[in-house]
Amino acid sequence: MRIVELFLAGFRNYDETRIRLDPGVNLLLGENAQGKTNLLEAVTYLSAGRSFRSRKETELIGFGREFAELTARVYSNGREREIRILLFSGRKKRQLFLSGVKKKTFGELAGVLTSVLFCPEDLLILKTGAAGRRRMMDQALCQLSPSYDHALSEYTRVLEHKGRILKDRFDDPSLADLLPEFNEQLCRYGSQIIHARGSYMARLSPEASRFHRAFSGDREDLSVAYRTVSTVADPTAPAETIYGELRDHLTAHWQAELESCQCLTGPHRDDFEAEINEISVKSFGSQGQTRTAAISLKLAEREIFRQTTGEEPVLLLDDVLSELDGSRQDFVLNHLNSGQVFITCCETDRLTDIGRTFLVDRGTVRE
User: Fold this and answer.
1) Please, which residues bridge with residue 276 across strands?
2) Averaged over 54-77, what is the pLDDT?
3) Residue whose C-alpha is closest to residue 48's, from 104, 119, 116
4) Number of C-beta neighbours around residue 68 at 10 A
5) Which of 6, 171, 240, 307 makes a 20 to 30 Å CA pair with 250?
6) Phi and psi torsions of 8, nearest 5°
7) CA dihedral sign, ordered 318, 320, 323, 329
8) Contact present, 201 and 228 (Cβ < 8 Å)
9) Alpha carbon distances (Å) from 318 to 53, 208, 315, 345
10) Residue ranges of the alpha helices (H) in 8-145?
């Protein structure tokens, strides 16, 4: 899988640019705040249908522009296709096209282009709050499963509505009559999310462990465990089973939610925990162990994409190599011998002899 050509117009700081890309390593060189990360954001949006930096699509549109266009010619599954997305500054919904044919949902584009992003924040993902770890699971699963993308979008929508009702019901008590229906929808979509996350993390853990053992010279064993609501006995069980367990948990917290005016239970509070030799990385891991574990997780994510789709996903390294010491740089670089890779950096150092180099300067790109 690879991007043959990328076209951006009105996206972030790009007025209009067209780039023909190398099937191997593409090195994006430039000073800070010139648009290197914006290019990677465009690729992730084309592959996952959402930004890793912002929840608001209007923020992706350049200042003073009415719309933005993102187009990629992609070679995957033995043929070339075009993904085109139009974003609008008003309330008009985005428009999605696959090889010129308009699509209703991003799920219809899933799998045409997949990508794995690794940025400096990911090096600390095991030490920071749970939101980043949920985002890591969601970014992967939205690409691998159209049904997951739909369930996550609907769950988020219903959750926001329920939150408003819990707060507004004091002004309009009749709103409370709507809560049982919202709870039913949260259990329906939430059970699908938990099943997908549980199944994905069950695959991710042994792959990450394999990379981490190789990285540490077989001295350390990494394990990853998914954490969801306590009534769910097995998050890999069918969604129908999880539905009842999730409903039980929500029922038990019903009064507490009414009193606090908050949605207290559900997959919006999920997390996963990493351990090295059965010791929590978050609580006791050294900086080196934390970074090594994070690298292992990302390489494992890439491997799962390859196993699932039969093709190597596009790998995006956003200024991450500059954050690593020599041995960790070597470990990452040794795994760049296949698939298409984008690397952003301010200085080329040891990377000048690989792939194709592009200079990024104030929203323009040239070789």
Assistant:
1) 222, 279
2) 94
3) 116
4) 24
5) 171
6) -130, 140
7) negative
8) no
9) 13, 20, 10, 7
10) 36-48, 130-144
Superfamily of domain 1-114+312-367: P-loop containing nucleotide triphosphate hydrolases (3.40.50.300)
DSSP 209-232: HHHHHHHTTTS--EEEEEE--TT-
Strand-pair category, 2-11 with 67-76:
antiparallel
Residue 192 sits at φ, ψ, to 5 deg, of: -65, -40
Which residues does 346 contact at the CB level (< 8 Å), separation at least 6? 29, 30, 31, 32, 319, 322
Q: Which residues contact 56 (CB under 8 A, 6 or more apart)?
A: none
Q: Nearest to residue 204, comparing CAs of 131, 294, 282?
A: 294
pTM for the model stands at 0.90
Judge contact between 45 and 55, C-beta under 8 A. Answer: no
Which overall architecture, per CATH, does domain 125-310 show? Answer: Up-down Bundle (1.20)
Q: How many CB atoms lie within 10 A of CB 362?
A: 12
Length of the chain in residues, anyone?
A: 367
Query: Is the CB of residue 137 less than 8 Å from the CB of residue 197?
Result: yes
Quick one: pLDDT band at residue 55, thresholds 50, 70, 90? Answer: confident
3-state DSSP helix/strand/coil % of the chain, to nearest 5:
45, 25, 30
Long-range own/partner contacts, residues 199-204 (CB < 8 A, 24 or more apart): 199/235, 199/236, 200/137, 200/140, 200/141, 200/144, 200/304, 201/137, 201/225, 201/226, 201/235, 201/272, 202/226, 202/236, 203/304, 204/297, 204/300, 204/301, 204/304
Confidence of residue 353 (pLDDT cuts 50, 70, 90): low
Give the number of other CB atoms < 10 A from CB of residue 286: 10
The full set of domain ranges for the chain reads: 1-114+312-367, 125-310
Report pLDDT digits (tens) over 268-301: 999 999 999 999 999 999 999 999 999 999 999 9
Between CA 359 and CA 367 the distance in angstroms is: 6
Pairing state between β 271-276 and 222-227: antiparallel
